[in-house]
Amino acid sequence: MNGLRADIVPGVPQTVSSHGLDVTNGTAYLNPAAFADPPASPDNSFALRIGNSPGFLPHTRGPGHTSEDFGIVKNTRLTEGTSLQFRADMFNVFNRTGRGDPDTCLCDGLPGPPDFGTFGLIMDPGQDPRVIQLALRLNF
């Protein structure tokens, strides 16, 4: 259910090793076997309690990623009172994709049959692609 926390299954690793990014099918990151739905009422299937997992898992973090930014500035004096400045700013200059954070809502269902949900999957990149910005400025 939405807004509920999962129960943590003790002794089961919370993440699985994964590499790359599959935006179509999702990249597995959280181990679905390490989490379980809290018990539900037999009458109306409402959860009987919130779940025993904390709001933030203390030993589990999303995948890290790096990006490098770079800038170049060239000042050229045209006359005594005027100058021209050219600058180029590059964000994520090496175009590293990285991975976003995994889906942490059990209400989205577990991956694979029968649910075909997205719990524990990373579905999108963690940062924007390379951006190059050019500027020309006349100072007088």
What brief labels describe this structure?
elongated, mainly beta, 0% helix, two-stranded antiparallel sheet, 140 residues, 24% strand, three-stranded antiparallel β-sheet
**What integer value in Å does the Rg equal?**
24 Å
Principal-axis shape equals elongated
Helix/strand order: EEEEEEE
Which structural class matches the secondary elements? Answer: mainly beta
The N- to C-terminal Cα distance equals 63 Å
Number of helices: 0
Q: What percent of residues are in strands? A: 15-25%
Largest sheet: 3 strands, antiparallel
Q: What would the average pLDDT be, to the nearest integer?
A: 84
Runs with pLDDT <50, length 5+?
Answer: none
Strand line-up of the largest beta sheet: 4-5-7
Helix content: under 10%
How many individual β-strands?
7
Task: Walk me through what this model shows.
The chain is mainly beta. The protein is built from no helices and 7 strands. The strands form 3 sheets. Strands 4-5-7 form a 3-stranded antiparallel sheet, with no helix packed on it. The protein is elongated, with a radius of gyration of 24 Å. The protein starts with 6 loop residues before the first strand and ends with a strand. The relative contact order is 0.24. The model has no long low-confidence stretch (mean pLDDT 84).
